Amino acid sequence: MNWMHEHLERLERHNADALGQARDLILESVLGGGLLYVGGSGHSLAMVLEGFFRAGGLACVHPLYTPEISPLHGAWPATEAERRSGVAAPVLEAAAPRPGDVVVIFSNSGANPYPVELAAAAKSYGLPVIAVVSAPSMAIAPARAGVKLGEVADLVIDTLVPAGDVSYPQEAPRTAALSSLSCVYLWNLLLARMADRAELPLWVSANVPGGDERNAELLERYSVRVPALRTSFAG
Prior knowledge:
This protein is of the alpha/beta class. The chain has helices at residues 2-14, 16-31, 45-51, 75-82, 88-95, 113-124, 135-140, 149-152, 179-195, 211-222, and strands spanning 36-39, 61-64, 102-107, 129-133, 155-158.
């Protein structure tokens, strides 16, 4: 598995400056009482779940989600939905963003209308957008939205994932997708860099003694602006 380790080491070096900029941007928002909106579609929804309500994660995360973009609600229909214009803007509008918030969008190719229009909608609210995307994948993907996510975002963190996502066997890759692994690694690097700079509102595991009690204050603080902490999504 050395090629996986080498990839993670390479993307950490490659994104050193971008991670520092993202850290500063998000920290300013978090410490100022803002929210971090996390979005994606298809398998990039794994990162929305990774960012939301998990042990050691930021409590001030608002997941950007609608069931139609999830493969769990229909695999091919979800692909069609992320390629369809007009799906993203209502998702952000329903989240009621405010000045001082930040949006992070995960997308391997950065080419479909959903992530691109989500970024454009965020920009229309005056919110900074951080894109976590594969530059090699984005370079060859069809621009289904006219432009690509990297062209809309204020800051790009590059997963360096090969076009097509697969990585093994190296001479003719056909399996072992790297996008989720890369994104989780980058996300945790970002959390660690922020934790080194400030005291963060972080969830504690609900499965350790006192976990529920320690999370109660965070639930009270953030559920007013993050309804998903208390209620289910419609649809």
